[in-house]
């Protein structure tokens, strides 16, 4: 076998591109280096009994072909039959080929280094990068060799090349260089190479981003590189964004792996948690040393958690944090309780924490008394416990059945509530605010309000709570006002009595409402409290009148409706509350003539009538209609019936009387001189039309209030016939019939039956109703199922339409 080298002009060396065949100094391969079958330079040369050498893979395939054809094996060169197909490695030739490759690799490597270090042409650089990639793939030592020659740093510097193709080759080469080579990773940890790679994630092309993520994945396997990557501002957000990109699954998966690697470095845990990668923090919190657990809990308090993360935290870390709260040192206790405060701010996560028995330690920290040298820690824990308690009670669970200690006391047990109230009176504003919030939330539940009210009565804490509505801090004032609102209906008389005993306190509440161009939560809470107090409390109404409060409230209503007060989310509830407060005047007209004069001066009939037509809330409609009903009841007493002229009047007097009668006709219903302002006449203030419209409202409470107001025109002492014909002309009769037919509530049925009976007293109306089968059925139902007074009125109505016989009185005479 000839062992001569091939012509240099026709040679190619394994691993080099054709365009670099002219590298000076490269040794051409010997002919013996090539396989006679494949004509390629052999990697694993073997010989057979004929003495010829072949590439193992090519020879095996040749044997397989002969076997499949059922022929005997022959030498591929001589075609002579072989007695044996044994294959023997040609170690000498293999060594010669390897030596030749190494020699040429060394020559090519030097050439590549020259291209890279001397700012060669892009084509030279690209060849060099391709060579280095293939060179690294041959064996792992080559990567180390390149580092020793300083090539790794040179390649990294070329990341700033203006040629995109060069940058792509550089990123690929760097990835291969650092695979399973910590030394090369250490090189990339120096300088700002890592920062440059990360820039490709936001500023590079799709291919650059892909290769950059792959490179970062390899780098992040080393702890020092993981830390360096985490030090780059915004890298976690960038990687998290790529990992969540469903349109690029391959890159997203790599980015996800990078984030997982980064999570193994403790210095990255906090940053990862900030972008929602909470698992590393969980792992350390659940399985770390007590010191690490405390650090992780401390990290948690700095995070802004989404509701989903709060649920996850409560589920996975809740028991651990509660255990730290019970058993940890001061630092661990404070860190864990701070974290629990944030987690418990979600309703569902709070429920999970309650199941983990968080209530007991929280209550203990509220009431604990410890050594003076721990005063600051104790106070901090009290504040955190108050925050946590405020969050927990918002979960909506039934706290009447959840024990907080081994004595089976609950959060609403008398002793517990009294302790909370005592703490409210004897603590700083931060704790005070949260405890009042907690009590406010608890009193919003029917199951909890009664025992809390009982505890307040026994402890005499109501005075303290009322005093807090004048606290310096607004949030405490608002919280106290809300708590007192929840107590309305349970402690009305006590509340009103204490407020009335201190006119300055009542004046302060009025002052709050008067001073505003922008409504706030405090205004609404103050209005809500005054509006919720019993309207039958004459003493409170009198004091409000003496303070000029009603004039202020009426003015505020006008300002809101005119837009002089900036509209916001508090506008509607403020208007509702102010209207309700103004109705107080109308509940005590007969008892106090001053209230009538006040209603006249404020022109309340017109005000409430206007409120019916403003498309306001149902509450405004209900209170306005109720107030009009109260005012209208007094109209028949206030209407001035004109005196009959004397028979003997001179001509001048007769003419003046005639002119006066033309100017002011008597009210057809009240039979006297009426006006909207002075007699509250519903006809004069044009309220009838609006009240009739309210009869078609979907809210039955609005319907009931409107019908109640219209019924005042049908009462004894009025000309009800005239009122009925007015209702008929305005389309009110049919709507009243509809109210009766719908039969929604007992109270509404009672009013509707009463009104219909009055209407049916007019024969024409009775005839019309007689042909309305539904009216008869509704009256029949009321006659059978109503209360005693309703049944009696329904009976009369049925008689009007001939549905019941009318019996004469039976007299028994004696002889």
From TrEMBL:
Residues 1-22 are annotated as: Disordered. Residues 10-22 have a biased composition (Polar residues). Its EC number is 2.3.2.27. Keywords: Transferase. SMART domains: ARM, Ubox. GO terms for biological process: protein ubiquitination. PROSITE patterns: U_BOX. One of its GO terms (molecular function) is ubiquitin protein ligase activity. Residues 28-107 form the U-box domain. InterPro entries: ARM-like, ARM-type_fold, ARM_PUB, Armadillo, U-box_domain_protein, Ubox_domain, Znf_RING/FYVE/PHD. Pathway: Protein modification; protein ubiquitination. The keyword Lipoprotein does not apply. The keyword Transferase applies. It comes from the Eukaryota. Pfam families: Arm, ARM_PUB, U-box. It catalyses: S-ubiquitinyl-[E2 ubiquitin-conjugating enzyme]-L-cysteine + [acceptor protein]-L-lysine = [E2 ubiquitin-conjugating enzyme]-L-cysteine + N(6)-ubiquitinyl-[acceptor protein]-L-lysine. Transmembrane segments: none annotated. PANTHER family: RING-TYPE E3 UBIQUITIN TRANSFERASE. This is RING-type E3 ubiquitin transferase.
